[in-house]
Amino acid sequence: MRPHLNLSGKHKKPGNNAGLEIPLKANIWLTVFALIRGLFFAAALFSSVVFSIPAWEIFAILLEFQIIVKYYF
């Protein structure tokens, strides 16, 4: 087997995080936004069942939020 090289040129074991490293700060933000997305999804399902609010309205709000976060942060 050929040894894998990371971006710095040092040898790495295959399968030991051979991909690109994501910085910890970005990883935390991705986790936070995934949690927010899950909460919006749960709120959309709950509100569409209980309050008969169309779920697409809440999904539209979520989409706008994601666009704002993507372009301003």
Question: How would you characterize the overall build of this protein?
Answer:
This protein has 73 residues and is mostly helical. It has a domain at 22-72. 62% of the residues lie in helices and 5% in strands. The protein contains two helices and two strands. The chain has helices spanning 24-50, 55-72, and strands at residues 4-5, 11-12. The protein has a two-stranded antiparallel sheet with strand order 1-2. The radius of gyration is 20 Å and the shape is elongated.
Q: How many helical elements?
A: 2
How much helix is in the residues? Answer: 55-70%
The 3D shape can be described as: elongated
Beta-strand percent range: 5-15%
Mean pLDDT across all residues, rounded?
69
SSE pattern, N- to C-terminal: EEHH
The largest pleated sheet is described as: 2 strands, antiparallel
Spans of at least 5 consecutive residues whose pLDDT stays below 50 are none
Structural class, by secondary structure, is mainly alpha
- Please tally the β strands and state the result: 2
Q: How is the largest sheet built, in terms of strand order? A: 1-2
Summarize the structure.
The chain is mainly α and 73 residues long. It contains 2 helices and 2 strands. It has a domain at 22-72.
